[in-house]
Write a structure and sequence with these properties.
111 residues, alpha+beta, two-stranded antiparallel ribbon, 7 strands, 12% helix
Length: 111
């Protein structure tokens, strides 16, 4: 089936020179979604309630902007993914307008 586009989140420019444009879609699971193995190493099912966890905001010497981390699936998710998930949770699940362009990535992601 063809997904229905529900909306678009903020563009997120990465430190490595990419611009991510998150598109939120509603998708039936028939047929099941099968990620392209050339593009996706792993995929996860994350219930919406898990996205409502409180993110961590860290201070680093290299930037005045806070670094965002999301505790999720027994791991720590870093920006840019953490920023996208945080905005989705705030805007879609909590109905709170939230911007993420002020959120920083960890230094290891700057390359």
């Amino acid at each position: 089936s063809v997904p229905d586009v529900a909306g678009v989140l903020d563009d997120y420019p990465t430190r490595s020179g990419y611009l991510i444009t998150p598109v939120v879609c509603w998708l039936d699971d028939d047929p099941p979604l099968i990620p392209n193995p050339a593009e996706v190493a792993q995929s996860y099912f994350v219930p919406f309630e898990d996205l409502l966890r409180t993110p961590r905001f860290l201070t680093i010497a290299q930037s005045p902007r806070p670094v965002i981390q999301m505790p999720l699936l027994d791991r720590t998710i870093h920006a840019p993914t953490a920023a996208v998930l945080y905005q989705f949770a705030e805007v879609v699940l909590r109905d709170r307008p939230t911007r993420v362009d002020q959120l920083e990535q960890p230094v290891f992601a700057w390359q």
